[in-house]
Design goal:
With 366 residues, the chain is an alpha+beta fold. It is built from nine helices and 17 strands. The longest helix is centred in the first third of the chain and has 29 residues, at 6-34. The protein has helices at 6-34, 48-54, 97-109, 152-156, 176-179, 182-197, 214-218, 319-324, 332-345; strands spanning 59-68, 73-78, 88-90, 118-124, 140-150, 165-171, 202-205, 208-209, 231-234, 243-251, 257-262, 268-269, 277-288, 293-304, 312-317, 357-358, 364-365. The strands form four sheets. It has a six-stranded mixed β-sheet with strand order 3-1-5-4-7-8, sandwiched between helices.
Length: 366
């Protein structure tokens, strides 16, 4: 700092004194504004104790959603409840929710991991049924993290503790309401849909999204998926093999494909190859599991006519999203690879994962 002359020191002292007096005046003005008026009112001012007492108190918890390669969800049986739970538990004082998620999986399943990606944050109201009055449940903020897809090797590495967790198994998404508390099941399904959507963390209130996507509105995965675990074979169906059904991977201009959702059940289906106007149609391959062939055709969509069957919603989704809404077994990866080969052959881009888009009932042309 430069040295000051005597006059500069005098000027600086005067400036400092003026600033001190200004701050004192400002504080006095604030005190007058905050002080009770003639009627005893204090405006919006509160003491720290009063403000702290006015804030809502809630519990905080963290759970992890894990699936296997067939798209089933890991749930665990515990010794203190009859219904099943996602792995996880309470956030300790001073602990970050993501750290709690990692700690709980280490304690409950013996698995080390890091789970930075949030799928959902749920607000659970204080009047939720099932909590004893003496517990004085204040409500809860529950974080759902993405535990990813576990291979058979990682599942085999699970080591349960001597108490609390009695066992684990992987449940079909549609079976969760029968296995879990109603709110827990809603939350798990909403989190799974958020993972499939790929659009970031969903905000929930008592397990229900505050901004429902098409998958939420249509209730996908609330009905058991139809297994198609037959071996994948590229190319046309052999003449001697009966065709059980025929469906199409029909590509929109952005590389996504047409998907049908039954409004009554939320079941996902690939459409028939004749669902729209197409170009470049080729036999992609077929699945065969002994009861006949499930044939697939790949083509580029040029337009859709008005919806002929109002019981189905028509969506555009990425091929990966279609697979995640289906139960195709290990051969699903082989079919997905064939789909991307066909997409590249049609000179279409790799689609970005976004929430599936519902198409208008009056049709569309590209």
């Amino acid at each position: 700092m430069p040295q000051l002359t005597d006059q500069a020191e005098t000027d600086q002292a005067a400036t400092d004194q003026a600033e001190t007096e200004r701050v004192a005046c400002d504080r006095a003005a604030c005190d007058r504004a905050a002080a009770p008026d003639d009627h005893g009112r204090a405006g919006t001012w509160m003491t720290p104790e009063e403000y702290g007492a006015s804030r809502a108190a809630v519990w905080t918890a963290a759970v992890v959603l894990v699936t296997d390669t067939d798209g089933r969800i890991l749930v665990q049986s515990v010794d203190y409840r009859a219904d099943r739970l996602l792995p996880g538990g309470a956030v300790d004082a001073g602990e970050a929710p993501s750290a709690a998620a990692a700690r709980e999986l280490r304690e409950e399943l013996g698995v080390d991991g890091h789970y930075p990606r949030g799928l959902a944050v749920d607000w659970i109201p204080a009047d939720t049924p099932g909590f004893p009055p003496e517990m004085r449940f204040p409500g809860e903020i529950l974080h759902v993290y993405d535990g990813g897809t576990w291979t058979a090797e990682r599942i085999d590495a699970v080591r349960l503790p001597e108490q609390e967790v009695l066992g684990i198994h992987f449940a079909e998404p549609a079976d969760l309401p029968a296995l879990m508390d109603a709110g827990d099941a809603r939350r798990a399904l909403s989190a799974l849909r958020a993972r499939i959507n790929g659009s970031g963390t969903a905000l929930l209130e008592d397990g229900r999204p505050t901004a429902p996507t098409a998958l939420d509105r249509l209730g996908v995965l609330r009905t058991r998926r139809t297994p198609q675990h037959g071996t994948w074979h590229p190319g046309p169906v052999p003449a001697q093999l009966p065709v059980r059904d025929h469906s199409g991977w029909l590509f929109g201009p952005d590389g996504r494909v047409l998907l049908l959702i039954a409004r009554a059940t939320g079941t996902a289906h690939l459409p028939p190859p004749t669902a729209g106007s197409t170009t470049g149609a080729v036999p992609l391959g077929y699945r065969h599991a002994g009861e006949g062939a499930h044939a697939r055709t790949a083509a580029r969509l040029t337009g859709l006519p008005p919806a002929a069957d109002p019981s189905y919603a028509r969506l555009l989704a990425t091929p990966e999203q279609v697979c995640e809404l289906s139960d195709w077994g290990p051969a699903g990866a082989d079919e997905l690879a064939a789909v991307h080969t066909a997409r590249a052959r049609l000179s279409l881009p790799v689609p970005t994962r976004t929430p599936p888009t519902e198409l208008p009932e009056d049709g569309v042309r590209w």
